[in-house]
Design a protein that fits this description.
Length: 449
């Protein structure tokens, strides 16, 4: 029954022409042949290899319990992939060009530290030496060149790296001795008004005074400001009594009484003078070391590019200071501070001023100021009258402003804490060379300017 239906349907299709049409279409569009799959290729045997190759391990010997037929079949079933070869390296010059093809950013002058945020400081042992040259009459010598100077540090000549005659702005700390006698103090008071006339608007001044201890009258202020004359007027004092008390004999005791008491409280019986026929005389107090140290501490804060000076108006006596001369001098030589001075009183007298430079043990220093001046490269002037003191202000300020400035790089280590001597010579006869005798290296002064 089913076979008959199928034959009948097939006959109908043939009669209708559908099968013939399908055969014609198949002849016009033949079916694309499917290619055969590639046949696995067995890799050739490797020479000098006794065992299979395992990725990441290399060649290993076959295990004793495993046959060589199984190992070779496993090796044949795996298809090894060769490792990629590294690219060829370019020449060094070409590699540098490829690493940085564009130049780095160059900041404007003075803006490099702001853009990077880090300041790179190179420590070099740069030493600056101000030098004053005078002839046999005490006049300043001008017109010298760098070829005329020779600088020796610890006996070794140093080549000059800096030479200039440009004037430097001054930072001056005036130190006024108020322990001098009343007649000398009166002349000093009359000369203080001439200090401002010796300075320029680019200078700055601080004022100190001392009797029994140092006192800062004002910090650094403009040399031509209205504050300086007012401060100098307040610094004027009466000085000390120049009469010499008698401590023994019938005239011992207080010779001047006021309302039944001694005019000088130090000689009042029962006090520091004691009681009885023998009176203990009070000791004189002249704290020069403390005053110089206080001025030096204030000067050490001034920026580079300024000449640091201490100008002392005193008779040079020293007694009763807490600071020692050696410690104060070391501080001055470490911070590049020069001491200038005008001697007044007994130290300014001819002959007596020279003798006062010698110190007797266990006694008061009669003139310690000259040692400060000679060790730091300053100058000293001895004047007794008002006009002479006023002229010394202008003369010393001129000498400090018109110095030769020499600079060199020391051959010593950057910082070793040892004192280094300096010897400056000029290849011309009959000239006096004034410079500091040496210095102590420090971290703040070791940077190149």
């Amino acid at each position: 029954m089913k076979l008959g239906v199928t034959a009948t349907a097939l006959a109908a299709l043939v009669s209708s022409g559908l099968i013939i049409q399908s055969a014609a279409v198949a002849q016009q569009h033949p079916q694309a042949s499917v290619p055969d799959a590639p046949v696995p290729q067995t890799p050739g045997p490797l020479t000098n290899v006794s065992g299979p190759i395992t990725p990441g391990i290399g060649t290993t010997a076959p295990d004793a319990g495993t046959g060589s037929t199984a190992s070779s079949s496993e090796a044949a079933g795996q298809q090894t992939t060769p490792a990629p070869m590294p690219p060829p390296q370019p020449p060094p010059s070409q590699a540098r060009d490829e690493i940085q093809a564009t130049p780095p950013e160059t900041p404007e002058a003075g803006q490099g530290a702001e853009q990077t945020g880090v300041i790179i400081r190179l420590n070099v042992n740069f030493v600056e030496v101000p030098v004053t040259v005078k002839d046999s009459k005490g006049n300043l010598v001008a017109g010298l060149t760098w070829r005329d100077f020779k600088v020796f540090e610890n006996g070794t000549r140093e080549p000059l790296r800096l030479f200039t005659v440009d004037p430097f702005p001054l930072s001056i700390a005036f130190v006024i001795d108020q322990s001098v006698t009343s007649d000398v103090m009166a002349r000093v008071n009359d000369s203080l008004d001439a200090i401002q006339g010796a300075l320029t608007p680019y200078d700055e001044v601080a004022v100190f005074s001392y009797t029994n201890g140092a006192q800062e009258r004002t910090g650094f202020t403009g040399a031509q400001s209205a504050r300086l004359p007012a401060v100098l007027a307040l610094t004027k004092a009466t000085g000390s009594e120049e009469l010499v008390p008698v401590n023994s004999g019938p005239l011992a005791g207080c010779s001047v009484h006021v309302n039944g008491n001694c005019a000088d409280p130090n000689l009042q019986p029962g006090r520091s003078a004691g009681s009885g026929p023998f009176i203990t005389l009070p000791k004189e107090i002249h704290t020069l070391n403390d005053a110089v140290l206080a001025a030096a501490k204030e000067l050490s804060t001034r920026p580079k590019g300024r000449r640091r000076l201490i100008y002392v108006v005193s008779d040079g006596k020293e007694y009763g200071s807490k600071a020692s001369y050696r410690d104060v001098l070391r501080y001055l030589q470490t911070n590049q501070i020069a001491v200038y001075g005008t001697l007044v009183g007994d130290s300014a007298r001819w002959g007596q001023g020279f003798v006062s430079r010698f110190h007797l043990p266990f006694t008061m220093y009669d003139n310690l100021l000259v040692k400060y001046v000679m060790a730091t490269g300053g100058t000293l002037d001895a004047e007794r009258g008002v006009n002479g003191i006023e002229n010394s202000y202008a003369k010393i300020a001129e000498e400090a402003r018109t110095q030769y400035t020499l600079g060199y790089l020391s051959h010593q280590p950057v910082i070793d804490g040892k004192f280094r001597t300096i010897d400056v010579r000029v290849d011309r006869p009959g000239l006096e060379v004034i410079a500091k005798r040496g210095y102590y290296p420090s971290a703040t002064s070791a940077d190149a300017p």
